[in-house]
Amino acid sequence: MSVVDGWKDDELLDRVHEAVRITDPPPVRLRDAAMRALTWDHELEAMQLLYDSAAEPVGVMRGAAAVTARDLTFGDEELSVEISITEDEGGATTLDGMISDNTMGDRVIDDPTVGVEVADGSAGDVDVVIVQPNRPKRQVPVDEHGRFLVTVEGMVAGIVIVRPEGRRLATGIFSLDLDAG
Q: What DSSP letter does each residue of 2-28 carry, written as one string?
């Protein structure tokens, strides 16, 4: 450590850091991304974003009316997860999702709720965990067809899928904003 005009290096750097923090703080988006990176489990396998309805030009798929849902699809060679994000009149945000096994093809099952046989490529026995910055992780029930439904709070979320053999895949953090794109 050196001393210049009575200033020690560490003291000078602390003062410069404080001046920059006050006069030119990092954008909130950058700060939030850094916080998400610190809370994310880096041993997860990332699923690729394959589709985001918010990226569609207005009038092509979404129309000029108010957006009432946002659809996302994430996947890899083994699994895909389709998520519909909706917001009710009270402002509650819901994730309605379905996990599919990309390696098995469609299986035909008898679905008594619709009275016909339907194709089912469900992922079978998986666990789904909702991950959000500064919130506890939440395990979500998944039915035998790979469907899950959960109400979430906040601005962003991520989904972790845990396979019975221990493989853990993640969607990554995504915005809950219906118009984000």
A: -EETTEEHHHHHHHHHHHHHHHSPPPH
